[in-house]
Specification:
The chain is mainly beta. It has one helix at residues 76-82; strands at 69-74, 96-99, 104-108, 120-121, 132-138, 144-148, 155-157, 169-171, 177-180, 184-189. The strands form two sheets. A five-stranded antiparallel sheet has the order 2-1-10-9-7.
Length: 193
Amino acid sequence: MPVTPAAPAGAVSPAPAAATGTECPICGTPRAGSARFCEDCGYDHTTGKVPTLAPPAPAVPAATQGGWTATVRADREYYEANAIDGVDFPAEAAESTVALPAPQVRIGRRSSSKGTNPEIDLSDSDPGVSHSHALLTLSVDGAWLVSDLGSTNGTYLNDEQSPLTAGQTRALKDGDEVHVGAWTTITLHSPTT
């Protein structure tokens, strides 16, 4: 009968490999074996956090901040292309510019019963936006990513005819437009140097 040799004294047995087949809870990318970090958004499967490039800056108005910003506006062209019955384009549509704080910015509608409080809150401006509509995530290489969170009316990028699928993530660059709801367009702006 063969004998299995014992491990040498002081040897450390390898830790069991993490389960494969799991998805990143942030962007939905399948986990590569026991990889610690998500290959798409940088999510740390060990700590449950998305790495940031720098400590959070104190809150300042978007106009004076040197980081990424986004312009949020009601877009008549996007609204007319969708032709949603029973929803009228707003008579007065304000445009705003917001700072994009790392590591994540949620797009949606505030709801105390659902526990949603998105950073870009469209509850008073677009009825076609889901409570948890989309997510902007700052990757470890400094690029913003957009993910659809299973929204009802979809998340569209630039002039693409098909929406992102639930959990699908795409990289964004300066000037890219994210379309959500019945008429909202969010345009990203990179920092000025």
